Amino acid sequence: MSLIDQASSYHELAVFRSRYFTLMERTLPKEACRLVKDHWNKKAKDPKLPIAPASKA
Predict the structure, then answer these.
(1) Rounded to whole angstroms, how far apart are CA atoms 24 and 8?
(2) Contact, 13 vs 44, CB < 8 A?
(3) Distance in angstroms (rounded) separating the CA atoms of residues 10 and 31
(4) How far apart are CA 47 and CA 4, in angstroms?
(5) Which residues contact 54 (CB under 8 A, 6 or more apart)?
(6) Residues with Cβ within 8 Å of residue 36, at least 6 apart in sequence
(7) DSSP conformation class of 56
(8) What would the pLDDT profile of 2-49 be if each residue is shown by its tens digit?
(9) How many other CB atoms sit within 10 Å of the CB of residue 18?
(10) How far apart are the two ends of the chain, measured CA to CA in Å?
């Protein structure tokens, strides 16, 4: 979850999701997956989170 916390933009969250969610679903228990996804959703819904990283905005 620290990778999710370190994301500085929605773009970075989307990259994390595309790279890790499928792998996570295959290897972790369902409850652990749900906790990570809930944490991801909370961060993604943060209105202060920019869409693109500052260097690409």
Answers:
(1) 22
(2) yes
(3) 24
(4) 15
(5) 8, 9
(6) 1, 4, 24, 28
(7) T
(8) 899 999 999 999 999 999 999 999 999 999 999 999 999 999 999 999
(9) 9
(10) 25
